[in-house]
Amino acid sequence: MDLIDDGPEGNTPEFSVSELSGAVKRVIEGEFGFVRVRGEVGRVSRPRSGHVYLDLKDDRSVISGVMWKGVAARLQTQPEEGMEVIATGRLTTFPGQSKYQIVIEDIRPAGAGALMAMLEKRKAMLQAEGLFAPERKKRLPYLPEIIGVVTSPSGAVIRDILHRLRERFPRKVLIWPVAVQGAKCAPEVARAIEGFNRLTPGGALPRPDLLIVARGGGSVEDLWGFNEEVVARAAAASEIPLISAVGHETDTTLIDFVSDRRAPTPTAAAELAVPVRMELIGAVRDFGGRMERAMSQRLEVRGQRLRDLSRALPRPEELLDGPRQRLDLQGDRLPQALSRSVERRRLHLSETAGSLRPGVLTRAIAVEQRRLEDRAARLGPALARLVNARREALGRRADRLSPRQITREIAVGQERLAGLTRRLDEAMTARQGEKRRKLDALMRLHETLGYRETLRRGYAVVRGDGHLVTTKAAAEGATGLEIEFADGTLKLGGRSSPRKSAKPEPPEQGSLF
């Protein structure tokens, strides 16, 4: 017997989960089609799809937010955790997780205070890395041949720089045009600095000796591109000395701290880059005049000293008087001395000639002849004995140089060589056998530990879209699956992959608090 319930809930219509979720979605989107929310940025997630997922919170509540890829790419200031912002968008629901969220179409820092707080945080991080250290800064070249300028090609800044360079000292200038404000400013300035550094010195497009990054004055928002981390790191990594000239004298950006020199204005940057040509010419002339005066004064002082020293020297005539007198005296005594010397030599010759009689010479010759004949008589037998001794020594050595001895030594050497060759062949055969056995053992071990042996035991390898799949979520997200068994491969396909843009990542535990 059936029981009939006539209570008031019996007439209540039934909704499916999707119908109820759709109704709630229509109500929220109808009531909050356009909203502006002020809050602090909490968790920020940037998946590879390019979308940005974040939380907006205050001291009591949290709301999830999502920015699609196109909106995030147009932002001038990217949201960071802890930043106070004003987000503009529309409220909607995400039925897949039964939660509501705001689809952000624009997000801006909540005033200059938020920008300055983010700037101080970024500045402290770069300073902790040592990018502001004075020892990292490079000296500027005194007179660069080529100057690279990173700025807008249509503004008054480049005209002021070129005009000041033309007045002071004309140099070659390479201009890299960039956007100096807006979302494109930071990436273009960073690419310009890196591009100048990649040029080859002396190439078709020569590498500059000095870089100037310049922009006119403006608000904090206008100059914010030069506070981006990518610009600061590019300036710090530049191998070319860099001058930052962003804004007016009172404006300060991150690039000023990491650059090698900071100029208060673009015109001052040109003055720092080159000296004044006319001042150099005047200085050279001044140095030339000082050098001429110094040389003249030095020559005058040396001449005066030479004249003073010459007064203490005697006259040349006085120096020659004494030697001339001694020469005359010696000339008068020379004839008498020659006569006495000739007489002494004649007397000595006479005394020596008296002892040189013919009989004495004849006896001396006879004595020398007898000595010569005696030595000649003894020389013949001595030579004969020497020849015989040498002949006997040669005979003894010839007996030892018999061909039979050499033949025996060759035979013994061949036997030793054959024995060594046989031992070498045996050792090589044994070593090859041992290596072959080790290789076979390693091959068996490789086959045992390889994944194909695992497949033979009943397992399988699953790949999705060409990548190894190890989780259920990865398998569900793949467009096609390929299962490899021990005896072949099975392909499964036909399902399109879900769009990641339609489903934001679930928040982490505790991220909403």
Automatic annotation (TrEMBL):
<dbReference type="InterPro" id="IPR020579">
    <property type="entry name" value="Exonuc_VII_lsu_C"/>
</dbReference>
<feature type="region of interest" description="Disordered">
    <location>
        <begin position="490"/>
        <end position="513"/>
    </location>
</feature>
<keyword id="KW-0540">Nuclease</keyword>
<dbReference type="GO" id="GO:0009318">
    <property type="term" value="C:exodeoxyribonuclease VII complex"/>
</dbReference>
<keyword id="KW-0378">Hydrolase</keyword>
<comment type="function">
    <text>Bidirectionally degrades single-stranded DNA into large acid-insoluble oligonucleotides, which are then degraded further into small acid-soluble oligonucleotides.</text>
</comment>
<dbReference type="InterPro" id="IPR025824">
    <property type="entry name" value="OB-fold_nuc-bd_dom"/>
</dbReference>
<dbReference type="InterPro" id="IPR003753">
    <property type="entry name" value="Exonuc_VII_L"/>
</dbReference>
<keyword id="KW-0269">Exonuclease</keyword>
<keyword id="KW-0963">Cytoplasm</keyword>
<feature type="domain" description="OB-fold nucleic acid binding">
    <location>
        <begin position="15"/>
        <end position="108"/>
    </location>
</feature>
<comment type="similarity">
    <text>Belongs to the XseA family.</text>
</comment>
<comment type="subunit">
    <text>Heterooligomer composed of large and small subunits.</text>
</comment>
<dbReference type="Pfam" id="PF02601">
    <property type="entry name" value="Exonuc_VII_L"/>
</dbReference>
<feature type="domain" description="Exonuclease VII large subunit C-terminal">
    <location>
        <begin position="131"/>
        <end position="401"/>
    </location>
</feature>
<dbReference type="GO" id="GO:0003676">
    <property type="term" value="F:nucleic acid binding"/>
</dbReference>
<dbReference type="GO" id="GO:0005737">
    <property type="term" value="C:cytoplasm"/>
</dbReference>
<dbReference type="GO" id="GO:0008855">
    <property type="term" value="F:exodeoxyribonuclease VII activity"/>
</dbReference>
<dbReference type="GO" id="GO:0006308">
    <property type="term" value="P:DNA catabolic process"/>
</dbReference>
<protein>
    <recommendedName>
        <fullName>Exodeoxyribonuclease 7 large subunit</fullName>
        <ecNumber>3.1.11.6</ecNumber>
    </recommendedName>
</protein>
<dbReference type="Pfam" id="PF13742">
    <property type="entry name" value="tRNA_anti_2"/>
</dbReference>
